[in-house]
């Protein structure tokens, strides 16, 4: 028996999590696996009820779970709070407390959605990369930090073991793909980046089959737009990865298409504990309207099945089901063509989820 902790969070979080759970329930039931879904608060809704963005009790419940699924946190309602009291602080806390040091963000173009990208079709056609972001160090967690009268301070810091473990994972992922890895830094002006580059280079000696390239972060932001098909696995420190992965989401046209997996140490039987969440934010302007795009959440559920439950085949079928729904011309409002060349049908969050579920059922019954 497995138990999954749901943290729907704020804004559209509960709406998209509901659709992801619908898919997970079907897969687990089909496999004869008993799963207990439990739900807790994180982010602004937790602040409103308990005064803090994440309670210690929720962290402990997460530690005892098989995996965690999160929706979204934040919104303008809480923007006036101090940084360490805002909804996003709950997200940082759970990553730190659960030791989720690796964030995997697949960036893939759907052939039927070329129209939503700001780039030309021939530039983005075939884009399929993984941005691997270190998640528990860098300026987000470095000390000292804070406001000190006439100045403020944040500390960018990396220890060798932190760089080594994320680099090893990056090279292992590259071995399973095109055997090409780009490491991003700013080593020409930052000592911590020079250190990052040195350690990554040292780790690369264990993976002679993988082609390693080092690129400065400012140049990388340029190359991502110029020729995104060039990249396969992109290894980034926390801050740079946060920024570049959102840029990559813009390349394919929407963060609503981008899933993520935040992983920690391996558990028994080779399965990995992880927190899974769509990359998009809480979108408070459309919350409660039933029009949010659930694709990123559904694909995050696919990542959960793959990494935490060893169901790689089922994970691929979910991705295929999403692709087929899109090929059928079914869209949520955010990804609908303004002047479609073929007939499309614009639906809401729940109906889109139902369409994916029906496709998945057919695929799994073949």
Structure description:
- The chain is of the alpha/beta class and 366 residues long.
- Helices cover 42% and strands 20% of the residues.
- Strands 2-1-3-12-11-4-5-10-8-9 form a ten-stranded mixed beta sheet, with helices on both faces. A two-stranded antiparallel sheet has the order 6-7. The chain has a two-stranded parallel sheet with strand order 13-14.
- It is globular.
- The protein starts with a strand and ends with a helix.
Helix/strand order, N-terminal first: EHEHHEHEHEEEHEHEHEHEEHHEEH
By helix and strand content, what is the structural category?
alpha/beta
- Kindly report the average pLDDT value: 94
Question: How would you write the strand order of the largest sheet?
Answer: 2-1-3-12-11-4-5-10-8-9
Unreliable runs: none
Task: Report how far apart the termini are.
Answer: 27 Å
Write down the Rg: 20 Å
Approximate strand percentage = 15-25%
Residues in helices, as a percent range: 40-55%
Count of helix runs: 12
Outline: globular
Question: How many beta-strand runs?
Answer: 14
Key attributes of the depicted protein:
alpha/beta, single chain, ten-stranded mixed beta sheet, 366 residues, two-stranded antiparallel ribbon, 14 strands, 20% strand
Q: How are the SSEs ordered, and which strands pair?
A:
Elements: E1 2-9, H1 13-31, E2 35-39, H2 44-50, H3 56-63, E3 67-72, H4 87-97, E4 102-108, H5 121-124, E5 128-134, E6 146-148, E7 151-153, H6 160-175, E8 180-185, H7 191-204, E9 211-216, H8 217-226, E10 233-236, H9 238-252, E11 259-266, E12 272-278, H10 295-309, H11 312-327, E13 330-331, E14 345-346, H12 349-365
């Amino acid at each position: 028996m497995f138990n999954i902790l749901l943290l729907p969070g704020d804004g559209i979080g509960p709406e998209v999590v509901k659709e992801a759970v619908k898919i997970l329930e079907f897969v687990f039931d089909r496999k004869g696996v008993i799963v207990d879904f439990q739900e807790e608060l994180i982010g602004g809704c937790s602040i409103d009820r308990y005064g803090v963005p994440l309670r210690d009790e929720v962290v402990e419940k997460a530690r005892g779970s098989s995996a965690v699924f999160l929706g979204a946190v934040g919104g303008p309602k809480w923007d006036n709070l101090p940084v360490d009291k805002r909804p996003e602080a709950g997200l940082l806390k759970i990553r730190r407390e659960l030791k989720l040091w690796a964030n995997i963000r697949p960036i893939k173009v759907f052939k039927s959605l070329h129209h939503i990208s700001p780039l030309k079709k021939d530039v983005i056609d075939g884009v399929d990369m993984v941005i691997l972001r270190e998640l528990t160090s860098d300026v987000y967690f470095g000390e000292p930090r804070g406001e000190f009268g006439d100045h403020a301070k944040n500390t960018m810091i990396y220890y060798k073991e932190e760089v080594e473990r994320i680099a090893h994972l990056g090279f292992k992922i590259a071995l399973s793909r095109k055997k090409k890895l780009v490491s991003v830094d700013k080593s020409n002006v930052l000592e911590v980046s020079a250190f990052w580059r040195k350690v990554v280079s040292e780790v690369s000696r264990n993976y002679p089959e993988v082609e390693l390239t080092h690129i400065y972060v400012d140049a990388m932001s340029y190359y991502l737009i110029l020729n995104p098909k060039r990249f396969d696995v992109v290894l980034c420190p926390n801050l740079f990865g946060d920024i570049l992965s959102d840029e990559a989401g813009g390349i394919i046209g929407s963060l609503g298409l981008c899933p993520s997996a935040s992983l920690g140490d391996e558990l028994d039987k080779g399965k990995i504990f992880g927190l899974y969440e769509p990359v998009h934010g809480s979108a408070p302007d459309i919350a409660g309207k039933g029009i949010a795009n659930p694709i990123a959440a559904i694909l995050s559920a696919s990542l959960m099945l793959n990494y935490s439950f060893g169901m790689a085949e089922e994970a691929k079928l979910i991705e295929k089901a999403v692709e087929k729904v899109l090929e059928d011309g079914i869209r949520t409002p955010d990804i609908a063509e303004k002047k479609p060349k073929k007939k499309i049908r614009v639906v809401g969050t729940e109906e889109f989820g139902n369409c994916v579920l029906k496709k998945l059922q057919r695929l799994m019954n073949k």
